[in-house]
Amino acid sequence: MTVSATTKVGDNIIVDKVIAFETVVRKNVPYPHVVSPQFYTERFAETLLTWLESEPTWRLKATPHYAQYEFGFSEFKHCTEIQGLWDGAVLARVRGGVERAFGIAVSSRINISAHKSIPGQHAYIHTDKVPCETHRIVVQLNRGRADDSGGNLILLKGSKPADMDVVFKQTSNSAVGFGLGAKSYHAVGRVNTGIRFTVIYTFLSDTATDDKYNYFIAS
């Protein structure tokens, strides 16, 4: 799915209806990451969460290291109620925010996926070292999750549970962004109750080739 990166008259109206990714807090421990207290507008966050709750085509992905339900948004072009998610001007705003936050240029191609975790599911401590993938933003969407509901995103300074450094509360419509590499250890705690929804943005270096990453959406 390809959309123009050129800003057109009226694009700002669409952007302002979808994205509120403006206030960003930068942190350096255990490694550089950013926190955004509000990623989408309240109205769009509610629309997207309602859509995620009703979408029946989640696919289970289970490995020795994690288990979750997931899908990519490139297969939902027909869903007009959430089409602002992949609008070119919206993605350009998100990409610009990432470049300013981390001081690095990223490709115009962005992958957007969704994850759903149910009780018992979690992700072990790991790093993501996929060639050309540089940064990730994790947006949390829910209707309120208690501290003991499980499923928190965790950043660690090493590969052991004792290296746990930051545990993020699951405040709906908040986002965490971080670089991907050999030291970006992170995990998702075991879900105890309820359902954990997240929307994941994955960014590429500006050297990534379109033929290899054609499933990424152009911003």
How much of the sequence lies in strands comes to: 25-35%
* Secondary-structure element series: HEEHEEHEEEEEEEEE
Assembly state of the chains shown: single chain
Number of domains: 1
- How far apart are the termini? 10 Å
Query: Could you report the average pLDDT, rounded to the nearest whole number?
Result: 89
Helix content: 10-25%
Described by the principal axes of the CA atoms, the overall outline is globular
Explain this structure to me?
This protein is of the alpha+beta class and 219 residues long. The chain has one domain: Sandwich (Jelly Rolls). 16% of the residues lie in helices and 32% in strands. Strands 1, 2, 3, 4, 5, 7, 10, 12 and 13 form a 9-stranded antiparallel sheet that branches. The termini are close together.
Keywords:
single chain, 219 residues, alpha+beta, Jelly Rolls, four-stranded antiparallel β-sheet, 16% helix
Helix and strand arrangement:
Elements: H1 11-18, E1 25-27, E2 33-36, H2 42-54, E3 59-62, E4 67-72, H3 88-102, E5 106-117, E6 123-126, E7 133-141, E8 153-156, E9 164-167, E10 175-179, E11 186-188, E12 196-205, E13 217-218
Describe the structure concisely.
By secondary structure, the chain is an alpha+beta fold.
